[in-house]
Amino acid sequence: MAKMKVLALSYLFPNTEQPNHGIFVYNRLNALSKYVDIKVINPIPWSPIHSKLSQYVYLERIPEKITLGNLEVFHPRFFSIPKYLKTLEAFSYKLAVKRILTNELKTYEFDLIDLHWTYPDLPTGHFLSRAHHKPYLVSLRGYEAFHIPDPGFRKNIVKHYLKQADQIIALSHDLKKVSIGLGAAEEKHQVIRNGVDTERFGFISKNDARKKLNIPATEKVIISIGRIVKPKGFDLIINALPEIIEKSTCKDIKLYIIGTPDPADDFTGELKGMIAKLKLENNVVFQGGVANQELVDWYNAADVFCLASRGEGSPNVLTEALSCGCPSVATDVGAVKEIIESEPNIGECVPSDDSASLGLALSNVLGRDYQREQNAMVFSRYNWDWCAQKVLDVYKTAIENPIK
Questions:
Q1: CA-CA distance, 105 to 258, in Å (whole number)?
Q2: List of residues 6+ apart from 203 with CB closer than 8 A
Q3: Burial of 164 (0-12, 13-18, 19+ CB in 10 A)
Q4: d(CA 54, CA 66)
Q5: How far out from the chain centre does Cα 163 lie?
Q6: Rg, C-alpha atoms of the chain
């Protein structure tokens, strides 16, 4: 029996210059490639001024075509003016995708269109669906996908085309609720959270991990990972630290913040101001960026992983930590509650934007013993193949029982 053929479009996807950009999209599609034939189109923004702006020069170095894992990936350019006239991208993005289908993929007769972002993917996916008489589905990966607070017409465009999609995969029940609230039919939705790369993230002894990172065995270590912006909630952890230290029998407690500032929304100054005010200079370390493949050492070296975000879809960092057996405390956003409650005794889920609850949970977890190796083994069932098989069922439904 011939394999199903899938055309995947994604505004978010790794490339040679940004190997971790949208890595969760790659991980899902690469896992699916075991079961279906997939071609990926990831258009890259372009304009005459991109090469003259230092923050965008790297885009010119991305090749037009690469093979990544088991996937053939095309990177056509689409006209885009940084920060302005975003509504026009619905047209230029569509033209870029059409060029690939007219040339490199002119003999590729796909059965399904799989979209991994909403804008500008949705208008293009809808156009291709009508032109080729094939169903399309879209994945909702976070609140940003709805473009609700954004200026311009993007939020209206997303709302319109969500209603037209044959199937919708939401990474959490919260995202599903928002989508239904915008008018998309409930029966089109499936909730499937991200998997985790269990080949990369697994248990190693805490002592070995700490030796590699030069972290003293006597420290109680909290780690938190993400871009240094306010929505990630690092301020909530810092605000809770004095009470955590006071309650603990170990006074050598360290919070390692792993991540880099966002040039457009850097929150580092505010965090450092809080640290100085609370006299926590010896308790907080800004570790900077860490390569994804090196995070396994940090998860295993930590006593607890903390995700204090004010908003998420299906956070990879949480599933990576749990896959290493690291007990975790995370705020109740996106798919977090489903993840934490999927197995017993792996951590705690607390209300979002609540520093007191976060601090209490961190103190509780730091004071308990966990079966880390056993927890890592149990959580490894939620790998990307587990996710891929769930998505494959949605593919089949979209083709065999389209809902309009």
A1: 41
A2: 300, 324, 325, 372, 373, 376, 377
A3: middle
A4: 24
A5: 24
A6: 22
How crowded is the C-beta side of 85, counted as CA atoms within 13 Å?
10
Which three-class secondary structure state does DSSP give residue 352? Answer: coil
**Encoded tokens for 162:** 């969500």
Considering only CA atoms, which of 1, 5, 3, 2 is closest in space to residue 112?
Answer: 5
Tokens 């290493």 map to which residue?
A: 324
185's tokens: 């039919």
pLDDT at 404: 55
- Per-residue confidence (pLDDT) for residue 403, from 0 to 100: 59
Residue pair 318/335 in contact by the 8 Å Cβ criterion: no
Task: Write the burial class of residue 178 (CB in 10 Å: 0-12 exposed, 13-18 middle, 19+ buried).
Answer: middle
- The whole-model pTM stands at 0.89
Q: How many CB atoms lie within 10 A of CB 106?
A: 9
**Element holding 113 (H helix, E strand):** strand 112-115
- Angle of CA points 230, 235, 240, to nearest 5°: 155
Q: Which two tokens stand for residue 220?
A: 């109680």
Distances, alpha carbon 20 to alpha carbons 24, 25, 27, 249, 289, in Å: 8, 10, 11, 39, 12
CA nearest to 137, candidates 163, 177, 169, 172: 169
Angle between helices 121-132 and 154-164 (to 10 degrees): 40
The model's pLDDT over 348-381, given as tens digits with 9 standing for 90+, comes to 999 999 999 999 999 999 999 999 999 999 999 9
Pairing of the two strands 65-68 and 5-9: unpaired
d(CA 213, CA 207): 10
- Residues 141-159 have pLDDT tens digits of 988 899 888 877 889 999 9
